[in-house]
Amino acid sequence: MGNAxxxxxxxxxxxxxxxxxxxxxxxxxxxRVSYVLEQGAIRLVVTAALDPADAxxxxxxxxxDGVRGLSFAVDDADAAFNAAVAHxxxxxQSPAADTDERGKVVHxxxxxxxxxxxxxxxRRHPGFAPGFSADGLIADRRAPRVGLEHIDHVVGNxxxxxxxxxxxxxxxVFGFEEMTHFDRDQISTExxxxxxxxxxxxxxxTMPINEPAPGRKRSQIQEYLDAYRGPGVQHVxxxxxxxxxxxxxxxxxxxxxLTPPPSYYDQARQRMAGLGDELAxxxxxxxxxxVDREGDGYLLQVFTEPxxxxxxxxxxIIERHGAEGFGEGNFKALFEAIEREQGRRxxx
Length: 348
Ligand code: FE2
Description:
This protein is an alpha+beta fold. It has 9 helices and 15 strands. β1 and β2 form a beta hairpin. The site of fe (ii) ion has 6 residues, from β8 and β12.
């Protein structure tokens, strides 16, 4: 982030996170500042560099605000790192321990898509990590509660022709399995097209990967790659048990979401016949929440506008009821909403 304090404040004021940790010059780390943000089981860390020699400095200069690293909790960071490298991962940071009187945290990192580090974190510490303080931290208790609970999935965008290589990476290096694949004829509009494969460890870590496909005009995935100047995280989906309350609160706090075309809800009610009678359809339409059915299950989802200055990283809010997909039935409606925004930016 260019300004970690301002971005942390955004996550607090707009999404209902609490800041639970801080490190920076005051805690003995002069080269960068970090804020730890928590809500439910979700933990985000926003960091800005103070020293041009810090790696975050170059990351922000090239990519703007975005996801620098994805952290995977492991029992043994040494073992995870060594196994990943033995299976073909590119090492970025060898295992290193931070220790204080309360415990230790061991981090190691390998290269993911683009400059997105994949970090193994072994935490044997009651707090976040040594060197983090909980003094004077910010939370907005006046605004309505949002109620986000856990990370549902994290989506990456990679270059055209690179999807299969990254599918192999998650299979060979991380031991993930392919959950679903969508080809361009399944996800395309007149303009945008993409191919997508969903990789999962089968225990709650789910990582869809997209690549752009040729269409009549520039794919939204290509717009991302151009703006981010390379592959990276496209969106992070956060699960809530009550999406109407969450999106109502987020909207009151100033978050703007993409809204499907008005005709969407007539079609959605037909698709949900016999299943969605108890849904608060007026609230869903008012808030732009989309619905997707899978047999006897369904999911509700909404996508924010990009969070920073570039059309790159955004957040999805999702509520699942026995559905394991990602809203494929909504892709077309969503694409059309994204393309309206893309057109306004002159990028179609
Ligand atoms: Fe998603």
